[in-house]
Amino acid sequence: MTTPHWLFGDQLGPHFLTPVHEQGPDRAAPVVMIEARSVFRRRRFHRAKAHLVLSAMRHRAAELGERVTYVRAETYREGLRRAVGDGGVTVCHPTSHAALRLVRSLPGARVLPARGFLVSHEEFAGWAEGLGGRRMLQENFYHWVRERHDLLMDGGRPAGGRFNHDHANREPPPRGATALDVPGPYRPREDDIDAEVRQDLDRWEREDGVRFVGRDGPRRFPATRREALSALRRFVAHRLSSFGPYEDAMLAGDPVMAHSLLSSSMNLGLLHPAECVEHAERAWREGSVPVNSAEGFVRQVAGWREYVWQLYWHFGEDYRNGNALGHTRELPAYFGELDADAVTARCLSTALAQVRDTGWTHHIPRLMVLGSHALQRGWDPAAVTDWFHRCFVDGYDWVMVPNVVGMSQYADGGRMTTKPYTSGGAYIHRMSDLCDGCAFRPTDRTGPRACPFTTGYWAFLHRHRHRLSGNARMRRAVQGLDRLGDLDDVLHRERQRGDGAP
């Protein structure tokens, strides 16, 4: 008999069912999908995320029809037992350490190589070994991926004469604008499956003690392959050309700017990263997109996303426990509850409201507002990682562990990035309109209008002065402490703020 193939809820695209180099699954293999309620009992996920994942799984099951056995069970083990009994299954390499442990503990499971990425684990290991002990820099990895996959290359040289076009991709928002002048992103239409999902989530909250955070408005992100392809085509045709210059900019009234909103589709497996970067490259070659915008998008997908995926496995399971800065403070209630109304600082309140309402913000609010605030406050990096995982529709263990532990919270002590990513209010003021009308002033370190990001920045540098003074990229910033005649007042102001909402 043909061995059934088990699809996890983030393996929903056609490339997870296509035989590859004798690795299966069998072309006519029955498919097993398991909806495990225990996942939602263990952790308090964003309601919009729970809706998206369940909607995507149920839509995929509907597409597969009689080929799939779809089991709703309390646990994966129970569901697999009901689906195949003592029989074996094939399964593509899961995307978390916990899921890999589970499938490897099943006597009848055969784990196939990972799919949904440009670089295999073996290829990455070969690249890392070839460094001869030198640091695994993301920029070098990105160049290697571009060359290996012939991405945005022009006669052996990078498109536009350079690999990195960041110099053209750091523009603040247009002066006086409340939104970018670009067509809006693709928006899916809900259907009967979405209605069923919403009814089930209501019942679980009412009867089964399952709890969520955030709001579940109309579904904003693709739940099917067809929707994801429509979103990709719309982004490339109408939004990609404006993406590059403003990819780091923020506007209070335009949370999506010109971003693709494709991360959840790639992380659900609905889109393969190869087709995403190929669409962007084709648009550049056809002359409809400038090279800096195409390169900025390719960098996010073929550079950063691949790098994060590989480091998650390369660093190993204990990496998540890194806490090089010794941060142990608990996340305050306003943050955990996404209570944006409790926050006075306009930048933080706006970012929290975006997460509360949609389960998403783009990468700069994540890193330089939400993550920077957590870093300055000294919150436990494991708790911060868990928060990002639960509260973002595109958040998965493999994504958030390196992104938060390694980059956002610098909890690995610099294994992944060369410096902590945090700043005072001046950066936010330069790259956004979020300081306009705020009760705080980005230039004020002390006094009643002292910006919490500005005081927090200097207090962070002071707290970790000994460690950061040896960092070449932080040395000048740390030396700036000696030029602050009001440092004692800054530190006093920061102590007064405590864990209250800024």
UniProtKB/TrEMBL annotation:
InterPro entries hit by this protein = Crypto/Photolyase_FAD-like_sf (IPR036134), PhrB-like (IPR007357), Rossmann-like_a/b/a_fold (IPR014729), UV-DNA_repair_photolyase (IPR052551)
Compositional bias, Basic and acidic residues, is annotated for 163-173
Signal sequence coordinates? none
Region annotated Disordered sits at: 163-190
List the Pfam families hit by this protein, alphabetically.
DPRP
Extract the PANTHER family matched here: SLR1343 PROTEIN
Q: What is this protein called?
A: Cryptochrome/photolyase family protein
Which species is this UniProt entry from? Streptomyces iakyrus
